[in-house]
Amino acid sequence: MSSAAPRTTGQDQLWSVDEHLDDILATVRPLEPIELQLLDAQGCVLVEDVTVPVSLPPFDNSSMDGYAVRVADVAGASEEFPAALEVVGDVAAGQADLLHVGPGQAARIMTGAPLPPGAETVVPVEWTDGGLGEGPVTGMRARALSPDGAEGHVQVYRPAEARAHVRAKGSDVRAGDRALEAGTVLGPPQIALLAAIGRATVRVRPRPRVVVMSTGSELVQPGGELGSGQIYDSNSFALTAAAIDAGAIAYRVGAVADDAVTLRSTIEDQLVRADLMVTTGGVSVGAYDVVKEALSYVGDEDEPGSGIEFRKLAMQPGKPQGFGSIGPDHTPLLALPGNPVSSYVSFELFVRPAIRTLMGLDDVHRPTTTATLTTGKALTSPKGRRQFLRGTYADGAVTPVGGAGSHLVAALAHADALIVVPEDVESVEPGTEVEVVLLG
Amino acid sequence: MSSAAPRTTGQDQLWSVDEHLDDILATVRPLEPIELQLLDAQGCVLVEDVTVPVSLPPFDNSSMDGYAVRVADVAGASEEFPAALEVVGDVAAGQADLLHVGPGQAARIMTGAPLPPGAETVVPVEWTDGGLGEGPVTGMRARALSPDGAEGHVQVYRPAEARAHVRAKGSDVRAGDRALEAGTVLGPPQIALLAAIGRATVRVRPRPRVVVMSTGSELVQPGGELGSGQIYDSNSFALTAAAIDAGAIAYRVGAVADDAVTLRSTIEDQLVRADLMVTTGGVSVGAYDVVKEALSYVGDEDEPGSGIEFRKLAMQPGKPQGFGSIGPDHTPLLALPGNPVSSYVSFELFVRPAIRTLMGLDDVHRPTTTATLTTGKALTSPKGRRQFLRGTYADGAVTPVGGAGSHLVAALAHADALIVVPEDVESVEPGTEVEVVLLG
């Protein structure tokens, strides 16, 4: 490696935001699928078509608490002329041995219990006297309190058609049906279905493990005492939270001092638990830009995918960026600039889509919309750079918060949107329609 | 307790959906705040106004990699007639001992490093020869590779105004400013700000611990073998996932058999880790409705807040519901019906708002919108009941998925919205505008 300072060759090559993003998305591949317990798979993408092994419901069953009877025995029943039937016992949900319902008989049946042999229909308990002989009731007495409730006689006050209040076997899904397609994101209702068809585990792309590391000798951990020239480390906290928000399992590494050997060994150490590494700081043109220094050693021309490229982007904030892969598994690494706003905006634009690509999601980007710029004076933006200003969005209007400075963390904390000013625009008048990234 | 079967008194009292919800929201109180580590507080609601203890930035610092100089020394500088200055050393970020920049001198300065005494402005390295004497450069050589870079002379090709590329102390936030207000939900940018002002911990309402328990002797855990009359437990999985989705820490208890003593002791066991308990099944009018049976013993008239009330709601699905509180801490408990769709819809309507109320969030409900009903034939709905049908929503239109049956889990898994049919509507024609709850 040459130790000469980089020289200006007319104009530095500037990457556009889209070129950098395209390069990241073309490089990062979805993680290999693994079999996970259902609840561990929440939020993950299914990679198999799941087929129904057994019909739902698996058997004809009652949708009501009531009496399983024969249709003919309750035909013409009314409050004036009830049908009187002999109660032969209970059919509870989960009961394996079913009694037989013969002519003139009824079995007390509970919601979800199998329709017993001989029975053709179910009359709800509210259509009966509940075996008490004192007119219509609104429910049954608890079995535990009244063990004789399953004996004696019941009066039925209304007729029922065949298979009334009966859920037919397979009426939800049939064995052999496709329950869920590969590519489905597993939320609570999908987990409900998988459990209902008996799946304890499922094959999905796991959540990516993202290691977040900030760099800078000036960084002190929050809660510590600031010395002269020092500031608190905020990037490692913000980006760990943002990685979790994007769907990752995130590991925060404390800030690493500006020493290439230490940084290099910390990164190598952490590789074992990383599907993606994110660093902040040390990527610009200074003499202590240690991420650039440490990772520029990594590339081996004979070993594809083991080098980090440092670039200048036509973007504000976030001009200096590094991207590539590192280590034996070619773990992708994004080296973000160190200013808090720069690193957060870079995360939203580049790291979040990378995380969601690792997850196998189709929808990797934040939603965007257009909004009317509401502000007292025109926004200015440097020529040739795509600018991302912080703003608050509501009801089709967006208002800038704070200025363009990449150190303005307080304004960032009060924003919920990024206002996009294109490369060829240097001034945006109030009232203009602008593109907005919704930070959610 | 009377063991008489409940009798019909003309008409059962029906609670409306809104009455039941109002009762829940009037009873459930936000959890007591606790001090949490920043990253543990993600997604939580701040309960204190946070004041800035030290200005950000804490000192004037450079926004560029370049040279700290005096204004007069670079006045009139150009590529043709550069200003030649003596380089007196480096000022790196985090450096405590600062050199003094005198007339005719320059200090190499890094982004974020304090402006050294004597210096009045910063010229970016790209406006200089980087000390090489060979025209403009694009960056500095790494200090580690070229330790003599901080010595010798530098040529500066452009003038700089006073305090150019200098971020003033306090230009982000000033000591004594309010950083964040009580009530703020802590996302990544808010965590960034808290870390930046040195807060390691913060006072928030914690995530509620929600214990989810399904009941039913017919339930088999997914992965097991179904016997006669048995089905798989899906509710405990679905609602645990839904509780996590709502922001809770959720504990899934395996399905409990229909035995009041066992259920009662399981609930008492679990109370120690519950801020909210959710059960499914056993709340209707059958003889084996064990939740109702077990929890009806709980209430002590002299002990407020320790009883569960079982109700019928003017709602489909989800008519039978229980709500109240239990145990020495009056832990709120929602007893949902056992049909998978009933329990899921009940969760969305009642448990999710309860969880979000415990978190102290203002916004406890799912978003709703109106949509055009897209379907081949009219929807029918029982009179006097608010019906929640499953549907898919896109671009202002909603299409029903599956039927009204509360056992249709497969359809639920393909829905992303609930179609609301009001109590007084019995039929909805295609093309009608309907209210929709977005589950997304």
Automatic annotation (TrEMBL), chains A, B:
Question: What EC number(s) is this enzyme filed under?
Answer: 2.10.1.1
Q: Which UniProt keywords apply?
A: Magnesium, Metal-binding, Molybdenum, Molybdenum cofactor biosynthesis, Transferase
Q: What is the reaction catalyzed?
A: adenylyl-molybdopterin + molybdate = Mo-molybdopterin + AMP + H(+)
Question: What InterPro entries does this protein's entry cite?
Answer: MoaB/Mog-like_dom_sf, MoaB/Mog_dom, MoeA-like, MoeA_C_domain_IV, MoeA_C_domain_IV_sf, MoeA_linker/N, MoeA_linker/N_sf
Pathway info: Cofactor biosynthesis; molybdopterin biosynthesis
Annotated Gene3D superfamilies? MoaB/Mog-like domain (3.40.980.10), MoeA, C-terminal, domain IV (2.40.340.10), Molybdopterin biosynthesis moea protein, domain 2 (3.90.105.10), Molybdopterin biosynthesis moea protein, domain 3 (2.170.190.11)
Q: Does Magnesium show up as a keyword for this record? A: yes
Cofactor(s) for this UniProt protein: Mg(2+)
Which residues belong to any copy of the MoaB/Mog domain?
Answer: 211-357
Please verify whether the record's keywords include Magnesium: yes
Question: What Pfam families is this protein classified in?
Answer: MoCF_biosynth (PF00994), MoeA_C (PF03454), MoeA_N (PF03453)
Q: Which family does it belong to?
A: Belongs to the MoeA family.
Task performed by this protein: Catalyzes the insertion of molybdate into adenylated molybdopterin with the concomitant release of AMP.
> What name appears for this protein in its UniProt entry?
Molybdopterin molybdenumtransferase
Q: What is the taxonomic lineage of the source species?
A: Bacteria, Bacillati, Actinomycetota, Actinomycetes, Kitasatosporales
